[in-house]
């Protein structure tokens, strides 16, 4: 069976949506909220799938990344592989 790039992205997006609903359900449970409440609350909401790839750079001080931004969603799942990953700018310095 041949899968086009659009099909792969669609299936990946669906899998990530399922994962995020599971995570949000467990977060709610950890706060003492009924198991299904969070899942039902978020079930019909839209998800955003953003894919960025930054290969290793021999001069990391020359990289830009995505630039300062906030995530407009309730939950962000960040895949971290060979790099330190997410950093936040707090009190005039970047922190991992």
Automatic annotation (TrEMBL):
Pfam families: 2OG-FeII_Oxy. Coiled coil: none annotated. Gene3D superfamilies: B-lactam Antibiotic, Isopenicillin N Synthase, Chain (2.60.120.330). Residues 46-95 form the Isopenicillin N synthase-like Fe(2+) 2OG dioxygenase domain. This is Isopenicillin N synthase-like Fe(2+) 2OG dioxygenase domain-containing protein. It comes from Brassica oleracea var. oleracea.
């Amino acid at each position: 069976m041949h899968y086009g790039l659009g099909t792969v992205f669609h299936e990946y997006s669906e899998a990530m949506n399922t994962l995020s609903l599971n995570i949000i359900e467990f977060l709610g449970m950890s706060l003492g909220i009924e198991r299904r409440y969070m899942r039902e609350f978020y079930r019909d909401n839209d998800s955003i799938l953003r894919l960025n790839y930054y290969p290793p750079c021999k001069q990391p001080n020359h990289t830009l990344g995505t630039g300062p931004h906030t995530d407009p969603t309730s939950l962000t799942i960040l895949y971290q592989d060979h790099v330190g990953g997410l950093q936040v700018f707090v009190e005039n310095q970047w922190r991992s």
